[in-house]
Design goal:
It contains two helices and eight strands, in the order ββββαβββαβ. It has about 140 residues and is an alpha+beta fold.
């Protein structure tokens, strides 16, 4: 009898969470998993409300990983802040090779980090979502 390879557990790969402000800032979260699965939770002022599922192709997933690696994500600061008031905060997390890093971006993040945030926001706005039966938290 031949042995079948053990399939790796699906784990989180990257995540972007956007928080509220005093204006119409979207409150939402997108999570990308190692198998290409996407999960979106939209709240107040988000492009869509509720919980949604989507999927990346293998090529799209590899491109995102390459962009995070090219930005030297693990070398970026843990937090970018300023004295400005009422900005939304973005939290972006990357898991790779047994390591993880979560960066808080309130204001003043470098272009490399802003570019990664923009890539994940493009996924949020894409027409690839199916509403899930699980309610958003």
């Amino acid at each position: 009898m031949a042995c079948r390879p053990v399939q790796a557990a699906t784990e989180k790969l990257m995540q972007l969470e956007r928080t509220a402000c005093m204006g119409p800032c979207p409150v939402d979260q997108i999570t990308v998993y190692t198998d290409g699965r996407l999960e979106y939770k939209g709240g107040e002022n988000a492009p869509r409300q509720g919980t949604y599922a989507g999927r990346l192709t293998a090529a799209e997933r590899k491109q995102l990983i390459a962009k995070f690696d090219a930005a030297s994500f693990f070398a970026l600061q843990d937090s970018y802040t300023s004295t400005k008031l009422d900005y939304p905060t973005k939290y972006i997390t990357y898991w790779k090779g047994g390591k993880s890093k979560r960066i808080r971006d309130y204001d003043g993040a470098p272009a490399a980090l802003k570019g990664l945030e923009a890539e994940l926001i493009k996924l949020i706005k894409a027409d690839r979502w199916q509403q899930s039966a699980v309610p958003a938290k």
